């Protein structure tokens, strides 16, 4: 029995369709369009700029390998975002003994995000506080409060119970309040 050919929704871009056919230039276009968002997500979840660069590369390598499985049921950027989360969480699961590092940077551009507060001072303090959170609590906070995932989705991605996810979010928020003096 042969598999049905992948049919993309009309909203799927020409670049995605061309990349699925092996067009490297089309994939490079998708890379340029999505690099900032993927890097920002990897940076927030890893808390380390160097590691975020490596993870971003891993995400795009995986995207190139799996672009044929993209069915167009959602936007390409949504599919890529989910892939990035899976790559980062998978890396963290494979290196459970790795100690999270605190990211301290004055490069505001590193945190490319439309939801960033307008006062740069507040943004820097918040980003540093988030980076200082324990890895599990940081990941849940980012995925839930910044990226909008539901507890059930986060628990499934992390391979934990929903209650654990909720407890980590509560812990992350409490630690943030303490760090920010609120």
TrEMBL record:
Superkingdom classification of source: Bacteria
Entry's Gene Ontology BP terms: DNA-templated transcription initiation
Domain spans labelled RNA polymerase sigma factor 70 region 4 type: 126-176
Coiled-coil annotated residue ranges, if any: none
Tagged with keyword Transcription: yes
GO MF, one annotated term: sigma factor activity
InterPro entries given in the database record: RNA_pol_sigma-70-like, RNA_pol_sigma-70_dom, RNA_pol_sigma70_r2, RNA_pol_sigma70_r4_t2, RNA_pol_sigma_r2, RNA_pol_sigma_r3/r4-like, WH-like_DNA-bd_sf
RNA polymerase sigma-70 region domain segment(s): 30-96
Record key words, sorted: Sigma factor, Transcription, Transcription regulation
Family named by the database record: Belongs to the sigma-70 factor family. ECF subfamily.
Protein name, per record: RNA polymerase sigma factor RpoE
Species, as recorded: uncultured Gemmatimonadota bacterium
């Amino acid at each position: 029995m042969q598999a049905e050919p992948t049919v993309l929704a009309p909203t799927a871009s020409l670049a995605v369709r061309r990349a699925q056919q092996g067009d490297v230039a089309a994939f490079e276009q998708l890379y340029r369009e999505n690099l900032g968002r993927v890097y920002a997500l990897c940076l927030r979840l890893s808390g380390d700029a160097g590691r975020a660069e490596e993870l971003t590369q891993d995400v795009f390598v995986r995207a190139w390998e799996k672009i044929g499985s993209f069915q167009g049921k959602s936007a390409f950027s949504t599919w890529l975002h989910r892939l990035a989360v899976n790559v980062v969480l998978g890396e963290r699961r494979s290196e459970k003994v790795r100690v999270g590092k605190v990211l301290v940077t004055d490069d505001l551009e590193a945190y490319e995000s439309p939801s960033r507060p307008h006062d740069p001072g507040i943004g820097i303090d918040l980003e540093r506080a988030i980076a200082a959170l324990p890895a599990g609590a940081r990941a849940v906070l980012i995925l839930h409060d910044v990226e909008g995932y539901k507890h059930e989705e986060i628990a499934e991605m992390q391979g934990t119970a929903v209650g654990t996810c909720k407890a980590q979010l509560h812990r992350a928020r409490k630690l943030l309040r303490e760090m920010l003096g609120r």
